[in-house]
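The material for today's practical consists of a large collection of protein records. Read left to right, the backbone structure tokens trace the chain's path through space. An example says more than a description, so a record of this kind follows:
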Amino acid sequence: MINDVIKDVQHRMDSALQALHNQFKTLRTGRANAAMLDGVHIDYYGTPTPLSQVASLKVPESSMIVAEPWDKTMVAAIEKAIRNADLGLNPSNDGKVVRIPIPQLTEERRKELVKRAHHITEEARTAIRQVRRDGNEHLKMMLKGHEISEDDEKRALDEIQKLTDKHIDEVGDVLKHKEQDIMAV
């Protein structure tokens, strides 16, 4: 029973860390990366559809992304959706493909992105702490219900704290790498 609680805590903390990685993929750095368009949705015949499902995304060079729609009538809609996504990008189309140049980031924009990265990181830390709190409460309920002994509860609480510390450290490492990536000129 205790192992189930600890496995659940581990799984939920891993999920919070994975969510952080996914959110960081969409944060711009100075280099082109197709993942930065993951949050862009196109109105595809009345249905909001991720860009990656209506077009092939290629990165032919470090400062350019090319979106080649499978349905050529979607070129204008793709261009408009990218403009409206508030990514600071200015796409253009030639009727067949949408070219998305990735401008160099200004120092001010880099600082804004680092601030956003810190905010996203704090949300991940909060999620991990919430998982710890849920796990600890579950153990306390098990102790109250005489399902486990006080010694078992103490060991499990220590294990959950170790998992929490490990995941918080990993979040800090991920932030540090993303900061370096954003600030690299």
User: Anything to note?
Assistant: The radius of gyration is 22 Å. The longest strand covers residues 55-61. The chain has a mean pLDDT of 89.
